[in-house]
Amino acid sequence: MADNTYDAIVVGSGISGGWAAKELTEKGLKVLMLERGEDIPHGPGYVKANRELWEMPHRGGRTQEMINDYPVLKRDYPLNERNLHYWASDKDNPYTEVKRFDWYRGYHVGGRSLMWGRQSYRLSPIDFEANAKEGIAIDWPIRYNEIAPWYTYVEGFAGISGNKDGLPQLPDGNFLPPMEMNCVEKDVAARIKQNFGGTRVMTIGRVANLTEARPEQNRSCQYRDKCWLGCTFGGYFSTQSATLPAAMKTGNLTVRPFSIVKEIIYDKNTKKATGVRIIDAQNNQTYDYFSKIVFLNASALNSAW
Q: Could you list the residue range(s) of the whole structural domain that residue 170 is in?
């Protein structure tokens, strides 16, 4: 196989890109993963993971300069001194809004899998059937029973902790033991159950934080409340802590950071994609890579244009 030819190319290294690379490499395919940004190695790349607030100039808060430089990111919690280096610059990566659209981006290996909120819930049969029953838009082409085995598969690898509550609108999953509620939460949950006769339920979040050690991530959550800095313990699911190690273990994965995909190479005769053309973000040179399969996992908007 030529140096620039692979069985499959995965564009993007966030949550879906990491999963694609894992699944393809474990099936024996030689895979090239392309990431537009820098590499962030698991552990050493989390440069602020062990820094305390009092060790930062602004105690982890936001400054007026940050507010000026990040007009989109400032709209919500992501803008702060603690993990600002993970977020793409709003000034360097502007976009036009007809209506307000908050687009928070992370351009590096792992993407937003390093900063996501980790809340992980299944859609229910109610969700899949709602459009048809209510006459809104078009019907879903699939039903819950078709996707349920895949929910189970993903939960089993990623490690989703949660409580099985038997709620039809919130299907139970393949959970690790739930995180324990604190004393106040337990009291509130008990009062809700008592006063609403079981028609209202307060439950612990179903999250991709490990309450038991897993084969890939190794350690469980350490309850440090520093998740969005990157977890050196691998206590929550991310590309770096879970799917990337699994893919690398096969020996079938090549990761190329600083690779901005410019276009999909398309064969008009076969009417198939045959590869991608990239711009190297470090030397501004153009390179072509070829494959039988191209997966676009660069988020919905970046994949589409």
A: 125-207
